[in-house]
Predict the structure.
Amino acid sequence: MTTSFILVNQTLPLLEKCKTITELRQLHAHIIKSNLVNHTSTITKLISLCSHHGDPHHALSVFHRIPDPNPFIFFSLINQMSESSCPLEALLFYAQMLTSLQSLNRIEFLIPALLKACGKSRALEEGRQVHGQIVKTRMLFDPYVANALIRMYSELGCVGLAHRVFDTMHVRDQVSWNSLISGYLRAGEIELADGVFNEIPERDLVCCNAMIDGYMKSGQCELAEEVFRTLYDKDVVTWTSMISGYVVNDRQKEALGFFREMLRQGVRPDAPALVSVLSAIADLGFVEEGKWVHSYICMNEIGLSSGFIGSALVDMYAKCGHIENACRVFEDICHIRNIGDWNCMISGLAMHGLGHEALDIFLDMKIKDIEPDEITFLGLLTACNHGGLVDEGKYCFELMQEKYRLVPKIQHYGCIVDLLGRAGHLEEAVNVIQNMPIVADAIVWKAVLSACTIHGNVAIGEGAALRAIDLAPEDSSCYILLSNLYAKVGRWDDVGKVRLTMKQRGLRKVPGSSSVLVNGKVHEFFAGKEINVVYSVEVRTKIEEIVSRLKLEGYQPDLSQVLLDMEEESKEQSLILHSEKMALAFGLINRSKGSPIHIVKNLRICYDCHSFIKLVSGVYNCRIVVRDQNRFHQFESGSCSCKDFW
Ligand code: ZN
Ligand code: ZN
């Protein structure tokens, strides 16, 4: 007895010190030799450490060497197994325990572990058997057991059964309510979750956070905000749910607002919050805010590798038109890059029309043995597309299928069709669509239609328009492209017919809007309206001044563009009121010498504005960066980085 006491006393601290599974195995051998295999606390410790080191199989081999395991050892093993990578083993040992032990005391402590194992392994049948035993042994009155049962059924997607257990409970605690709510949310039953949420006697942070997330995912931002406002104590999860929720619902300004409020209240953002807010900033094009967040990340020593922050920064700078900064961040993370970082860099360069640079990044990936995925190739195809690199694009499209065995998705086909079409290979583009193994969507046909508009090909364009309209009857841009095509070849009767059809179907052009950053503040302008009353006279006068100066340089307003603006009376006047021209004029009035003007437009930039801005960049000697719906245009000395290919 004394020897055993001394041995145990020596062995237990050694066990605690084990760092690897090899060390544990050595100690296990020592335990067998010293005849400690029946010593409960040594063995339970050994079993728990094996599981802790991710080796449940060794835990099993420890167990099998015990001649006469007692209940404590069974309990320990079952608990460990339910947490391991093979949770159903817990059930097997439970069954073995039931047959090998004479008396079974306090098995209710084991039931939650068993139910958890069933939930994790998606084992409904086994779960129901445990439920049966719970009913027989009247353990259902134990709230721990009942809550575990609710959680299991929720996890298995049987919320109805979870609710039935909930209804039979005499005493419900917060965990019972929360488990039921999260079950409904997991099943996507927001209304039923809402019903339970409204009945809760007392709402805690856990259920409020869950409901905020649920409301956001179902697009009910107002309800989420209502819950948020009632919360006195919020944690970082609450704030992050609000920020990412607004981003998911395309309400970036609100997301940014919540981020600012979070900082004001002294809450330190976590990686998901930073990634969400950076994506909101990227969409808005508010680079000053982005730079501020970047320096916040550096000052607070938040690693660029944590939770995709590096990728989010690369993406934000690229989308805000600062591709040099994007490249610098990409350099900074050269030791910790993941595939997402590489992909973000390639798409960033693509957006800027820097096709060759994007292809260089791909070569670098190959040197560093990084396996490209389908997103890599989508970026490369986009890069070739925006850079007008037809041969390289075709090569990448073949490479992804033949060398990397990746199956192109509709987006990849969309890119290659767009690339071929814009380069004038219209028949080849249609051929690709007809031979692809997936059904074409409206976007693919719209790419053909848009290419036909550029090249004035009515024969192919009309067919493409019919298919695009058939697939997306509510999308006004298909009609507008078709009307553009007819205008291009002078078929005014047909232009009129298309416009009439649009009117009859109640379709309107999406109004254009552009924003420009002046002295760190964003100013927004809407097409056809001078919404910003304070500046309207000033802006109008400036545009007129620019127009007369440009006319001396040979600027001819492209009146064919006006046909799109059906409501406008005077053609030239309506051209002047394009939102990007107003934003540009405002930028020119307020610019500080030498700094570029950054404009973000919600739609594709029109031909007239494109040539207008080109001239302005030369005559006024300033760099102008415009981000439209598809890509960036960098205007300088009278020409654009897209080389008029967009
Ligand atoms: Zn325009
Ligand atoms: Zn351009």
User: Anything to note?
Assistant: The pocket of zinc ion (ligand 1) is lined by residues 578, 580, 606, 608-609 (CB under 6 Å).
